[in-house]
Amino acid sequence: MTHPTRHILLFISNLGLGGAQRVFHDHSVELAKHYRVTEAVFNLDGGNLYPSGNELISLDVAGGGSPIDKIRNFGRRITRLRSLKQRLATDVCISHLEGADYVNLLSKSQGKVVLCIHGSKLHDGNISGPIGWLRKKVLMPGLYNRADRIVTVSRDINPELIEGFGVEPQKLVTINNFFEVEQIGQKAQEPLTPAEQAVYDAAPVLVTSGRLTIQKNQAPLLDSFAALLQRRPAKLVFVGDGELRADLVAHALRLNLRVYQAWNNDPLTPDYDVYFLGLQQNPFKYIRPAAVFVFPSAWEGFPMALGEAMICGVPVVTTDCPTGPREILAPDTPTPAVPIRQAEAAPYGMLMPMLNQPTSLAADLQVWANTLDELLADADRRQHLGRLANQRMQDFTREKIFRQWVAVIDEVLAR
């Protein structure tokens, strides 16, 4: 149903690089087909990497500074967002990312408030220290129930919010992220350059895509890959960049791996073991011709990179981390009470032990090396898993997912 007179304000902390920002952009584009949409952001210090074409308003309130500055800026954000909601006669304000959620909730006036929760809160390694305690013990339990609706991107976030933060179950609904299935499939067909193709021809390629951050937990992947190289030739390709770039390169070098770094502008040849390609306009062209997509995350929401690799028809090997991978690969199975310690052949890919438990890390790395070795030895199985992966992603098309979003917004508007 289309409601061009209903005004939706989409609100996010920043529009820099990130999965939540990409989802925010996609929501803005799609919801504008049904409602009048305006975007708002704390400030534009990180630029706007995902312009949607809809009006974007900056609250123009900086971040950082001393604790007193932060408190003052928090208050300014609340005041300015409340004023913006009133000026625009906002019917529903939908916020993405936790900082924006608090400001949205505390600026609530006549309009409705919907939160979109993008990831695990209990397992987020970035929620730590005194501020983390404040977020987990005071802000989330005290504020989240003020929302009219809370949309989680993964079913497994719901019990966390209910049991960990006292959120009322009736406020929660799960709507998975959607994927541009057809568009990604087309981009994946772009050919590699001759130099890139030579790398892929030299040995089977394992590829991973995502930011180089604590969450993505790529360092142990290098250990597992080094063990795999003792058994068979292979290449490991990283698509993406981030603050742990130097640490990961150093770790690879300590493992005596030969490392290619795109930012050094060295000639690309098949003579390396590990390839750091940096940010790429089209990551899918590097994923499609790979033998296996590997995903070692410590925690997730509903991981875009994993789903995109599956659209490319590549078999996926992923940690069974909270939250998302199990929901995608084994949708009919419950989350295990204790983390898995063996490889699990799921209907749509391989679920693996997490690589962040010190007491079991050596054994878990061995499970990864064994599983990758077995997959690289079985081309028929890889092809079969790749086909299944692609089939699964047809469940997450734009049309299917946005029918659910429009239903939630219309239900909130009807109250």
TrEMBL record:
Coiled-coil regions, chain positions: none
GO molecular function list: glycosyltransferase activity
- Protein name per its UniProtKB record: Glycosyltransferase
Q: Which domain of life is it from?
A: Bacteria
Q: Which InterPro entries match?
A: Glyco_trans_4-like_N
Q: Which CDD domains match?
A: GT4_GT28_WabH-like
Organism of this sequence: Hymenobacter busanensis
